[in-house]
Design goal:
The model is unreliable at 1-9 (pLDDT under 50). The protein has one domain (3-310): Sandwich (Jelly Rolls), CATH 2.60.120. It has 311 residues and is α+β, with helices and mostly antiparallel strands. 38% of the residues are buried. It has helices at 15-24, 35-47, 94-100, 103-113, 198-202, 231-243, 288-291, 306-310, and strands at 3-5, 26-30, 78-81, 84-87, 150-154, 176-181, 192-194, 214-215, 226-227, 247-248, 256-260, 265-267, 276-283. Helix 2 (35-47) packs antiparallel against helix 3 (94-100). The protein contains 8 helices and 13 strands. Strand 1 (3-5), helix 1 (15-24) and strand 2 form a beta-alpha-beta unit. The strands form 3 sheets. The chain has an 8-stranded mixed β-sheet. Helices cover 22% and strands 17% of the residues.
């Protein structure tokens, strides 16, 4: 694991950090987000919870999941189900956008990506607005998203049996992901988990450079829909799981992790006594629509900054 402590506004990545990102597909940055905004976003998360829900901020014993059936919500923009609590409405909140798309974070993202970054829209369309998101519905949950993905929380697992780690890659087109902890997250506390180096192994197994082919949804043919993975991808993903030791990106409020769009990753299993709270977002450049048409056979770093290509 490689991480850097940021010394203040305007801190930029050096060659060693860019080289680490290029090789491993992720980079942890400590203290990258404003602590006051982290606190404010935590407050927003609790304020959005209905008053009659059993989960209580002042009662840590109520944090243990899963959600009671009467407390669940199927609204993909404020989902509460099992051990997952996702508020995608907050993805277009002004403070959330200021937090995860701050000037310093955007500057470092641009160091890696080059080009001109797409701008998030305050009070725009949140993720999950176009119909039901996966796994039940016909549409991509990222369709039309104007901001960050939202604030994603994982309740403590309590007595739930520990299962094997699985991982996946994301299907919607973007170039660089970011996960920011808005509260402290201890080891084994459900932090974002990555499989270092998997991006270079999985990239050539995709048919498209940034997208993934999807089986359309038809009401009279409902059984098969969603992402269509190639056989080569499925075989290589199993090898990644078997051969690579994952890294759990735990840390303190304000820490972030950048990750490559083809990196295998997962939400960690939370065996702590606190809720894992993080904001998730994507970066992409204004020319991504053109870049999507390029062949997978081209060098996977051709679209990134010259500095990263040289690293």
């Amino acid at each position: 694991m490689f991480w850097v402590k940021l010394g203040g506004e305007g801190k930029m990545l050096d060659t060693q950090q860019m080289r680490f990102f290029k090789t491993n597909g992720y980079l942890i940055l400590r203290g990258a987000m404003d602590s006051t905004l982290c606190q404010r976003v935590r407050d927003f998360m609790w304020q959005a919870l209905p008053a009659d829900v059993s989960l209580r901020r002042e009662d840590p014993s109520s944090f243990i999941g899963p959600f009671f059936e009467q407390d669940e919500s199927s609204d993909e923009r404020h989902l509460r189900s099992g051990y997952r609590w996702l508020n995608r409405y907050l993805g277009v909140n002004a403070d959330v956008i200021s937090l995860i798309y701050s000037e310093s974070i955007c500057a470092m993202a641009q160091q890696l990506m080059g080009g001109n970054l797409r701008q998030a829209v305050v009070n725009g369309m949140p993720m999950g607005s176009h119909g039901t998101a996966w796994p039940g519905g016909p549409t991509d949950p990222a369709l039309g998203n104007d901001g960050a993905r939202g604030v994603y929380c994982t309740l403590p697992y309590g007595n739930k049996a520990r299962g094997p780690d699985g991982c996946h890659t994301d299907g919607h087109p973007f170039q660089l992901g970011v996960v920011g902890l808005i509260d402290d997250c201890p080891e084994d506390g459900g932090a974002f988990k990555v499989w270092p180096g998997s991006h270079t192994r999985l990239y050539p197994t995709f048919a498209l450079r940034y997208d993934q082919p999807r089986i359309p949804y038809y009401p009279h043919l409902p059984e098969f829909k969603g992402i269509a993975h190639s056989d080569a991808y499925l075989v290589e993903l199993e090898r990644v799981i078997d051969e690579i030791e994952p890294v759990e990106c735990h840390g303190q409020a304000g820490d972030i992790v950048f990750w490559h769009h083809r990196l295998a990753h997962a939400a960690g299993q939370n065996y702590s006594d606190q809720i894992r709270q993080a904001v998730l977002a994507d970066f992409w450049t204004e020319d991504l629509d053109y870049l999507r048409t390029k062949s997978v056979a081209a060098d996977m770093w051709d679209d990134w900054s010259e500095a990263l290509q040289r690293a």
